[in-house]
Specification:
mainly alpha; 3 helices; elongated
Length: 83
Amino acid sequence: MNVRSLAIFGGPPVFDKPRSTSNLIKPDKDTFLRYLKHDYEAGNLSDNHSLIGELEKRLAMLHGAKYCVAVCNGLWGLVLTIN
């Protein structure tokens, strides 16, 4: 595979219609708010609250990794990989 084989350059498309790269599901609002309640009531809505730690811990377990670092979007994930 090379760049010329991409659909934008005349190659066959992988999907029959464009796919979204954003959130593909709509989360349940009540569940979301229930997760936030503890940190909100504690006045802890900074970048270092318990939900981020819990998310990183669960994702590390899911992927069999020792660590997981949550970032705000894919760009910053890529930036972290540049060394």
